Amino acid sequence: MSAVKMTEGSVQVESCKAPLFYRQSEPATGDAKMSVLLLHGIRFTSENWLNIGTLETLATAGCRAVAIDLPGLGRSASAQGPAALGELAPAGFLKEVCEQLSLSPVVVISPSLSGMYSLPFLLQHQALIKAYVPVAPICTEKFTAEQYGSVKVPALIVYGDQDTQMGEASLRNLSNLPAHSVVVMKGAGHPCYLDDPDTWHKALTDFLDTL
User: Largest CB tally within 10 Å, which of 5, 50, 145, 158?
Assistant: First the structure.
């Protein structure tokens, strides 16, 4: 019998026209020490977290992990929100996801495209966030050093050293977060967790152990 329970489901949030698809993993006992929300980049979906073993790794580490397919992507393709990001109120979108799925306080893992959702959420609702794990997210330049400086949430900044476009640019902005540490994954590109899942999982679980 597996020590990990895997399920799939959907959640309806006000800003989307159809339910969002998600995958969930948790310890088979159902007794999780913390909740983790996994977001994804534009070419990816929640299935990537399943395939590389991140969902299983987190559940084995005693966490409840939820990986959603973002609006318009993956199996949430019909869940298109309003066309413009400004209308979607990205901070409120993730707040509603966390409320509907009882995830707060949540550890948010946010690669690439998902930065447009996670960064406003972090800056507006940090009371709902236990920790933040940005993986070369977009939109980091849209916020000031002062805004980042007001965030008390612990952060683990992760990027691949071959990610010349987003890696160092996001690090430059995110290093204004006061309680941050950095993991640079050698030989890994933009989706560094896909290039080297073992190093990614060790860095992630080591960080979660400090919370």
Answer: 158
Got the DSSP string for 85-118? HHHH-HHHHHHHHHHHTT--SEEEEEEGGGHHHH
Q: Global pTM?
A: 0.94
Write out the catalytic residue numbers: 112, 163, 190
- pLDDT (tens digit, 9 = 90+) per residue, 72-122? 888 998 876 544 444 456 778 899 999 999 999 999 999 999 999 999 999
What is the full DSSP assignment across 58-75? HHHTTEEEEEEPPTTSGG
- In the chain the domains, ranked by start, together with CATH numbers, are 4-209 (3.40.50.1820)
Distance in angstroms (rounded) separating the CA atoms of residues 85 and 77: 16
What are the phi and psi torsion angles at 4 (to 5°)? -125, 135
- 183: part of which helix (H) or strand (E)? strand 180-185
Return the ∠ at Cα 169 (arms to 207 and 35), rounded to 5°: 30
